[in-house]
Design brief:
Shape: globular
Number of domains: 1
Number of strands: 6
Order of helices and strands: EHHHHEHEHEHEHEH
CATH superfamily: Isochorismatase-like
CATH class: Alpha Beta
Number of helices: 9
Structural class: alpha/beta
Strand order of the largest sheet: 3-2-1-4-5-6
Strand content: 15-25%
CATH topology: Rossmann fold
Largest sheet: 6 strands, parallel
Helix content: 25-40%
Oligomer: single chain
């Protein structure tokens, strides 16, 4: 496992997983439905200094965007399991190119943006292609939810040969227990560190 301190920052991306208005903003799909968690709401402010430091050091900002694809009638395709978990999702939510689908203002802009339709951002997407063409070899993960999009995308990155690290306090989910378990599980294939530790590494690069 490659240590984050040995990552070549100019070949490293801060992977912002699903930090979108429809998840985080009070006027987004989840906010309107009262689906929120303090740990999730705190992420943009915590990660903003790190995103700024990444840009200054020549690193990349990559943002993945959960997307509900509209069908012929304009109604989105929503998988059955997601309908059960989030029955409040409706037409216009997570719409491609829409405000709700976009990265939150505190972390924008991203250098690379990739739509995702499943837990892993690598599934049926151009993510691997654009990372390769950009010369990115190392990924530092942050975002939501820890045990869903973050863990699934990190595992797929690992099997594709990317060096991975994950920010313990830069990820969150709706359950502290699930967050802790997911971070521990990812620790078998990725270095676990804090936002402050990552900032300290960038300060000496």
């Amino acid at each position: 496992m490659t240590d984050f301190k040995d990552f070549d920052i100019q070949k490293t991306a801060l992977m912002l997983v699903d930090l979108q208005n429809d998840f985080l903003h009070p006027d987004g799909a989840y906010g309107r439905a009262g689906q929120k968690a303090d740990a999730i709401a705190a992420l943009p402010a915590r990660l903003a200094p790190l995103a700024k430091a990444f840009r200054a050091a020549g690193g990349w900002i990559v943002s993945t965007h959960f997307t509900l694809v509209p069908m012929r009638t304009g109604e989105p395709y929503i998988a059955d399991h997601l309908k059960h978990l989030r029955p409040f999702l409706k037409k216009g939510d997570f719409l491609p190119g829409g405000w709700g689908q976009a990265l939150v203002d505190e972390l924008a802009p991203a250098d690379i943006t990739v739509e995702k339709v499943a837990y892993s951002a690598f599934y049926m997407s151009r993510l691997e292609f654009v990372l390769s063409k950009a010369g990115i070899a190392h990924l530092l993960f942050a975002g939501i939810v820890t045990n869903g999009g973050v863990a699934s995308t990190l595992r797929d990155a690992h099997v594709r040969g990317f060096d991975c690290a994950v920010l313990e306090d830069g990820c969150a989910t709706f359950s502290d227990a699930r967050h802790t378990a997911a971070i521990a599980d990812m620790g078998s294939i990725a270095q676990v560190l804090s936002v402050n530790e990552a900032l300290a590494r960038l300060a000496v690069s």
